[in-house]
Fold this sequence. Notes:
Layout (H helix, E strand, L loop, with lengths): L2 H21 L4 H19 L3 H24 L40 E2 L2 E2 L3 E2 L4 H24 L7 H21 L5 H19 L2 H24 L1 E2 L2
Amino acid sequence: xxxxxxxxxxxxxxxxxxxxxxxxxxNSMWILGVVxxxxxxxVFFIERDVPSLVLYTYYTAISFYGLYQWRQYKSRPVIExxxxxxVIQGVExxxVIQDADTKPVIEGDSKSITEGxxxxxxxxxxxxxxxxxxxxxxxxxGLVLFPxxxxxxxxxxGGFAAELEVVIVVMSAVATYWLSKAFIAQWFLxxxxxxxxxxFCIIEGMWWMAAMYVAYVFSAVYGYIHWKKYGHYVD
Length: 235
C-alpha cells in the first residue's frame, strides 16, 4: 500500500466523522476539518494535484473563520414563529406553532433548542438575494480566473479532468463559505460538488477518495433533511 493510499484511508475515516459532526452542527467539526484537510493535502501533494491542494488549503484557513461564526450564531435567540422552511429571504414563509416539547432558545444557551429532551443545536441563517448574487459572482469569477492563474504558474494540466476539477474547486469554495454562514442551501452545492468529485476521483484512479465523496453525497442529502427538520433561524 502506497503512502497516498494510506492518507486516503485516513482522509476517508476522518472525513466521515467530519460530515457527521457537520450534520449535527457541532463546533468540533471545524477542528476535525483541519485534520482532514491536512491529510487530504498530503494526498493531493503526492498526486501533484495543485487545484485540489489549493482548495484544501482554503478549507484549513476557513475552518477557523467558520468556528468563530458558528459560536456567534449559536449565542443568538431564535426568531419566534419562524421554522426552517424558508431558504431565501423575501420568499413567503408561514408562521409555525411550536410543539409542546420544543423550547425556544435562550440567548447564551446553545442547548436550549430541544425536541424530546435531546439537544438539536441547529441554527440557521436566511440566504438573502444579496448572498445568492455574491455566490454566483464568486463562482463565475473563479471559473474564469482560477484556470488562468494555474496556467500562469505552470500548473495547468489541461483536458476534461482539469476543467471538471476547476468547477468542483470553485463550487466547493462557495459551499464552504455558505456553510460557515449556516445557510441550509449549502447542502445543495455539496450534493453537486461531491458528486462531481466522485467522477473526478474515478478518472484519476483515487478509489479511496472516490468512496469518501460517495459517502459525502449521501451525507449531504441527509444533512439537508436534518437541518430542515431541526433547524431554527436566528436572523
